[in-house]
């Protein structure tokens, strides 16, 4: 390991959103430089990394016996330590234009309420990937900072960050989290709900990648102005042969109903637990949605209807957490206030 005074000359500090579905990296002075699926493909025997990100995701479900393609994170925490470390190392080198003598400070977004063991796993992965110093920041707090909310003021703000593995609901005031709830229901569960619906309703077996594409094209929490349909191809469970059907947005809305209602219910519970002094602030400023799951059509409308509050979609919701993590690197006082060493 290089001495700090030497390594700092070669480093560009990084903010990292180590997500279940996607990993994003923010480099100081350059913005978001990595936005890739959290997937790594390795040789089964030697564990040599073959592909990471988009190229590895394309291999899911298609690999021969000698290769494993896996998602090393589950529900926002590390499920495969070696895979996470190898993936993070590859992404960090990509962020630094493949320079190896780089030992940056790193701020990593983590779900609320994870255990000390899970935090230790994330720290160890980042350090083994080359980090000089690792700070952890709770994802909803990072998302709020990335969304431009005045988190250091004495006013209450509610943020709902819907990622791939977790939904984080939090009320923030004075650079701290007053109330939070980490729900292990999010975008990946929407994909799985579509898989199960198509299997049950149409006897069609599809993979999660196909389900995700269906969700993006016709998934919604409230109806579109005009009916939408999409073709989906899978294996007919009765014949065992490839089969293509057309599904409508109404079908997929039904498939997603339970998952969406679970997220809405978590927001309603958070509102019930919010201190009265902060409830008025939330009534005035509304609820902010962040994360890739917030892009589900009409989710903001449904939440507004249920809560009777204004609901706003953050600018570029997919990058809120990583932009927030990157921003605290630029402000020492904010870093000290919100991050855990």
Short overview:
With 341 residues, this protein is α+β, with helices and mostly antiparallel strands. It has 12 helices and 18 strands.
The Rg value, from CA coordinates, equals 21 Å
List the total number of helices. Answer: 12
* Biggest beta-sheet profile: 5 strands, mixed
Whole-number count of domains: 3
The end-to-end span amounts to 19 Å
Which fold name fills CATH's third level, the topology of the largest domain? Answer: Nucleotidyltransferase, domain 5
If strands are numbered along the chain, what order do they take across the biggest sheet? 3-2-1-9-10
Question: Key terms for this structure?
Answer:
341 residues, 3 domains, five-stranded mixed β-sheet, Actin, Chain A, domain 4, Nucleotidyltransferase, domain 5, alpha+beta, disordered N terminus, single chain
Provide an overview of this structure.
The protein is α+β, with helices and mostly antiparallel strands and 341 residues long. The protein folds into 3 domains: 4-141 and 321-338, Nucleotidyltransferase, domain 5 (2-Layer Sandwich), CATH 3.30.420; 149-185 and 256-317, ATPase, nucleotide binding domain (Nucleotidyltransferase, domain 5), CATH 3.30.420; 190-249, Actin, Chain A, domain 4 (Alpha-Beta Complex). It has 12 helices and 18 strands. It has a 5-stranded mixed sheet, sandwiched between helices. Strands 13-12-11-17-18 form a 5-stranded mixed sheet, with helices on both faces. Strands 5-4-6 form a 3-stranded antiparallel sheet. β15 (229-236) and β16 form a beta hairpin. α3 crosses α4 (116-128) and α8 packs across α10. The protein starts with a helix and ends with a helix. The relative contact order is 0.15.
